[in-house]
């Protein structure tokens, strides 16, 4: 054998990828020298000097795929690069991330690809730092201190140099602070910074909200110039504003929202016409008051969306607009954009038109009230709303027709329970209950879907540039795994050309309905789905089985809806000229990308705030037992959601009955190699609350017992899965993990 890495690099330096067997011949490697070559190749791959491709083919570093995207790190040190152009995330081991942080935009090189398509890489360049400020708990150390980040993904403390721990209000140990990063980690140098703001005590509900606001950089205060613009807006509809609008003030129009809603985007009205039903969906005309390019508009674009916490809303627009002149409050005139649609007896849309309008809502109804009238047949509620009952029954009829049409074309509905946090006056969580979703919710949902789809179809066929709400086909690899997974239960899911039709998935959901494996297959199917987003290109909406779809119905709280309103207005008024069209077409991709990002940030912040309230609710529940479902399986443990409380926590694998547990990734299960005990996603188990860790934002459970038995995987599957786990050296004896 020609010794050393130089020989390998010279061989690969010729430019062509070299298969392992060809390398053996070229380097004249004997049988007893193969182990040394293997070790050297592994070392060169780990150091990034060469790359390993599928099929055990090697090439020089840089010849493999390059990925650019956002780095998401785990508290244990490793991370994933999420490609900007989509596709499978790239796993990056901890050894390559010493100088990089969660949220950084990086370039990475693929250094190896497994047979199952999973890729591993190393970060090669920093494009942009993702974090410039850190929120966390301050601890004084000498004349300086350190900040323990609220975000465990950052994986390192920030050290505060002497003299940088105070400002106007000196930070004290235990307080929550905002620190600006002055020096990023490099070699032996740690993360350093200075304190710019003391937020307050950790257990103060206001500080808890501020912590999330600062962490996700949510704009929560409108500056004086934006407020001045908002205050200049009238709070009543003027005669001038009514000009040129269709007058719908005499139509019986109502809003239907939750009890705590304060801003009302949409109002609806219906009328029977023989066996057809006409629907008017009137949406607040925010674009009349928020002029494109104004300070109000710039601020709304920056925020992208309203953010909803259990105890408050961070609005996209100031209250003078969101709760005032733009809100479709009862018994007052309001400017609107109306989608008027006619549906036949089968629920098909046969007519549609759009126009600016003025309405006067007859009533502010709640979902609870409508349910009492239509479902409970409550005499008191019916009497109090006698003048509305007939129209509400027509709405019920139409919603059922529309739902049947959606289901007929393959629209997929995941009717999963959502938690509602109940707070006391001090902001403490007193209960976690299942949020109700009744007939009234479905009526409004169907009407909004119908309006959004009608507007999207109109703009697409006009045609003009527009923003679409798209939902792409599920990931092909995950689809194939799903097909194999459900086959084990006796179901057939055909995947053709790496795609599946929404109808096929809907059929699968119908087949498993009421079966023991229903929740299991629903959970696995949900994990196959991609996240919906905004796009200037219409790629259709897979989940709704809609060829074109947009967001039109919530301009008070979503910026994309405001953009669609402006486009629709220009088309209707004939002002969509060639120059405007070109300018709009050039700007929309960036608008779509920005608003999609803002939506994801808002969702993450909302989820964190809800999780915090859940965790606090569990603080005094140590030792109590609950029933729950396994919602996720990982090599290190089971994620479990409590059935009654919707609280998720983890059962560490080390606390399971003593065994060597193998992670069956495709089966979403942990299996004991000796006992063959299986813990699989959607299994019902009983757990005890073992610990609540506020710094880690984690509830830990201990397994009490299983409540449902599942079929055991053949032992051969367990052994095969075990062989796929990368373990260097000799196979360890079964041990507790």
UniProtKB/TrEMBL annotation:
It catalyses: Exonucleolytic cleavage in the 3'- to 5'-direction to yield nucleoside 5'-phosphates. Keywords: Cytoplasm, Exonuclease, Hydrolase, Nuclease, RNA-binding. PANTHER family: DIS3-LIKE EXONUCLEASE 2, RIBONUCLEASE. InterPro entries: CSD, CSD2, RNase_B_OB_dom, RNase_II/R, RNase_II/R_CS, RNase_II/RNase_R, RNase_R, RNR_Ribonuclease. Coiled coil: none annotated. Belongs to the RNR ribonuclease family. RNase R subfamily. 3'-5' exoribonuclease that releases 5'-nucleoside monophosphates and is involved in maturation of structured RNAs. This is Ribonuclease R. Its EC number is 3.1.13.1. It is found in: Cytoplasm. Residues 623-704 form the S1 motif domain. SMART domains: CSP, RNB, S1. The lineage of its organism: Bacteria, Pseudomonadati, Thermodesulfobacteriota, Desulfuromonadia, Geobacterales.
